[in-house]
Amino acid sequence: MHAVVRKFSGTGAKELFDLLEAKKGDIEALLRKVKGFTGYTLMRTSDGGLSVTVCKDKAGTDESVVVARDWVRKNASGIGVAPPTLSEGSVILHLK
User: Fold this and answer.
1) Hey, which CATH number is domain 2-90, 3.40.50.300, 3.30.70.100, 3.40.50.1100, 1.10.10.10?
2) Considering the entire predicted model, what is its pTM?
3) Residues 50 and 85: beta-carbon distance below 8 Å
4) pLDDT tens-digit map of 73-90
């Protein structure tokens, strides 16, 4: 399995997470279509928030990054949030 973490902070990050919370049903439907999707977490932090996507392989997490980026561009371009910081790697342990 492979995971990717997208961390949003700075200008517009809190507003983005307000929007993501309001649209969480749309986000879920979109991410469940990603090939090899295994799990997703969306979490607020003191300066914005982060998401964690787990897929069966790197191809799935790569697809999730594109899907997420396109959704933000389409739905949150007016917020002015900076692109996220990405961290990714092989999953050692994934509990459901």
Assistant:
1) 3.30.70.100
2) 0.92
3) no
4) 999 989 989 999 999 999
